[in-house]
Amino acid sequence: MANGTWKIARNRSGAQLPIALLAALAIALILIGKAQNPIFDRARTTVTDWASPVLRIARAPLDGLDRWMGSIGEIFNVYQENLRLKDENARLRQWRNAAVALEDRVKRYQLLLRAVPDPKLSSVMARVIGRSNQPFLQTMILDAGKAQGVKPGQAVIDQRGMIGRIFLAGNYTSWVILLTDLNSRIPVNIEPGNAQAIMAGDNSGAPLLDLLSQRVVLKPGAQVVSSGDGGLLPPGLAIGTVVGNSVSGYRVVLLADPGASDDVNIVDFKLKTEQPPATTANELPATAAGLPPAAPPQPAPVAAPLVHAAAPVVKPPTALPASPPAKPSANAQEPPASDTGNE
């Protein structure tokens, strides 16, 4: 009996040991996944660079199957869809004419005001070869990398609007963090009104809006575009429209659908920092106006401390002693006697 009890206890302890090892391994994998180590980033990009041809070949039949399955439901309403598209095309032509006229007017105003033109954007076209929709990470993989000029931080857009940003770039592949991801934070503008806000993803289909001013009241349907703060994302990229209210919070319904995007553009908009040139003497305002440059101000003289001296004592003048009468000298001539006595 005792031998059987010892065997049961030994079996239980032997079963608990693998469970403890698995728990320790799971904790280690979680910590490694959360760590921002360049070694793991390089390993990830190396694997995706090596597997990109396989992903491209494996995705080709899946894309064809998705298009075929999506077109089955549209076969029965082709006529109504055709009428709707014709009506939409006519309205878009009217808007196109209005947009062309407004663009010409804006160009004339810029010439009159000598406004600085907007910087031109360069872009790289890429194809989506993989998607990852994990509970805490929503990304996609593109078939363009550093060899095509792709850098981390660049915006990724499609024909409808912005999808996300490049957060990891390999030699021939790159990873995109979507706007709906929990780690996504970008500055945006809400028009009209030019209200500043931060759009934060929360792994839902509609990211949150964190307004910078608590006094701003938004209206549903307002347009959300990128603000360009920080100089990394180009300003004016279409993102979505505002829904919700001030009580439940504002959210953004995105224009682009990452799940339906196959071809995207990677926009390069990193402004180069320029150092201002040193100012010379001829560029001073006074010299440019034809005036001599002002002399540097002279330091004010420091006043000596005042010393209160004692008032001088005025003495009364002393009387000088009277001098005795002068004696006549021997050589002095006597006055001649008058002749009146002789007479």
Written description of the protein model:
The chain is α+β, with helices and mostly antiparallel strands and 343 residues long. The protein has a domain at 122-271: Rod shape-determining protein MreC, domain 1 (Thrombin, subunit H), CATH 2.40.10. Helices cover 31% and strands 22% of the residues. It has a six-stranded antiparallel barrel. Strand 6 and strand 7 (195-200) form a beta hairpin. The longest helix is centred in the N-terminal third of the chain and has 36 residues, at 78-113. 18% of the residues are buried. The model is unreliable at 5-10 and 337-343 (pLDDT under 50).
Summarize the structure.
This protein has about 350 residues and is an alpha+beta fold. About 30% of the residues lie in helices and about 20% in strands. The protein is extended.
Helix content: 25-40%
Number of strands: 12
Query: CATH-wise, what's the superfamily of the domain at 122-271?
Result: Rod shape-determining protein MreC, domain 1
- As laid out across the biggest beta sheet, the strand order is 1-2-5-4-3-12
Alpha-beta classification = alpha+beta
Distance between the termini: 200 Å
Q: Overall pLDDT, averaged?
A: 76
Largest sheet entry:
6 strands, antiparallel, barrel
Assembly category: single chain
What's the CATH class label of the domain at 122-271? Answer: Mainly Beta
* Share in β-strands: 15-25%
Contiguous helical run count: 4
CATH architecture of the domain at 122-271: Beta Barrel
